Amino acid sequence: MKYDVFGIGSALMDFLIEVENNELLELNLNKGQFHLIDEERSKSLLKKIEKYKVKTAPGGSSANTLYGASLLGSKVIFCGKVGKDPHGDIYEEKMANGGVKPTLARSERITGHAITFITPDSERTFAVHLGAALNLKKEDIFFEDLKDSKILHIEGYQLEDKELREVSLHAIQFAKKNNIIISIDLGDPGIVSRNKADIKEIVEKYADIVFANEDEAKALTNLEPLEALNEIAKVTDIAIVKIGKSGSYIKKQDMIYEIPVYPAKAVDTTGAGDMFAAGVLYGLSKDHNLKICGHIGSYFASKVVEKIGARLDNIDPEQISKLINDVNK
Questions:
Q1: d(Cα 249, Cα 236) in Å, to the nearest integer?
Q2: Does the pLDDT value for residue 1 go beyond 90?
Q3: Nearest Cα to 252, choosing from 204, 297, 291?
């Protein structure tokens, strides 16, 4: 295959801001939640955050995961939609510079963005305006490239909007017909709760790999982590439930792997789940066993939480080799 991972997701510019808990209340945002906002609300928030120090970077869950997998050594391609504006140009350039092949369609709407508020406890609160990302169409997907890929990775955020869900389903069904592994990251418990029937059907019919944190898993199954893992594993080949500081569970058939966390001085949990998925998908694409895949994901996640933002600038390949050797002992 030409590519290890083909990802579809919302191409969003990330605006990262450190705030106090009371400031979230003043902005009328629920701490730790994902808020989907319209253009008017977005403009209002962007005006209010001008007084803060803002860090910007290309983002979006699937895009972050692909960037991470590329950093580890995977060949990846990202499909999304941006505006015909400077942010769209910056997004495309930075993705390419990060080793990701960007196949970005252009829209008359502005490039989408995610305002991420980070409180002192490292919790993240999102205010997201999808903008051009909402205009992704079936014809924007490069199916020849998808056919040349081992894994299709879909972010849960693509499964909320009806039209985006249809586009994702079209790609998923194409992947299924062409024996491409289908990976779905549930993304957010609110999205799962609001779209439970649709997401459950997609997972049961198509998913080979499901990534969920404990809240997303509970939203999908109404069960606690280990029971939720077992429930998801009934309908997919590989089920993964992340339980924060307690590590994660990975299950394939009757085998359950308990993956520990790696020590970290967390300053921002943004991107931890995306980097965990990056490590696992990288490992799978290189035919490592699931235990090693989980450890790579956990190690990668531990590194990204030690900095502000969802992406690392680099990773030491010798550390990954050492990790693999240690796990194999």
A1: 14
A2: no
A3: 291
